[in-house]
Amino acid sequence: MHKLRExxxxxxxxxxxxxxxxxxxxxxxxxxxxxxxPVWRMVIAIMLAVLGLSLSVWSIVYMRRKGDGNPMDAFxxxxxxxxxxxxxxxxxxxxxxxxLTGSFVYYAGVCVxxxxxxxxxxxxxxxxxxxxxxxxxEKRLRKDFGEEYExxxxxTGRFWPVSFRK
Length: 166
Hints:
This protein has a single domain, classed as Four Helix Bundle (Hemerythrin (Met), subunit A) (Up-down Bundle), CATH 1.20.120. The longest helix is centred in the last third of the chain and has 39 residues, at 117-155. 67% of the residues lie in helices and 2% in strands. Strand 1 (73-74) and strand 2 (77-78) form a beta hairpin. The N and C termini lie far apart (44 Å). The mean pLDDT is 87. It is mostly helical.
């Protein structure tokens, strides 16, 4: 039952991040023809999407193997077993939230492909929701890992390699 719950959590997360949000962006944009995209936009969009998805997948695999658990709670509710170790290396040396950073880069690629203000608005709404989620998750991490997490926050940015919280 434990493995099934974990597998369902990863599958639902993957569907939401990889398909649902881009579909919402496409629908909000008025369902444009996905094939009628200039080559330069297609190339940039694909590069961003591949880079973003690669970072996200690397982060998930790394967290599962090294952190011995799942990286995310859903607004304080455990989706899958929580990590037992604070991850500060691998992709987590680049960002405290490399999965989200990867998602943001992926959605930037979707925005380039769709070239729509409406897609950008969906992306901005996603960023706002995820900022709220991250703040909730940070409270848990402070409680679980204390000073170790605080030191990590001082040297690593929330989404980018540099912390602007000096």
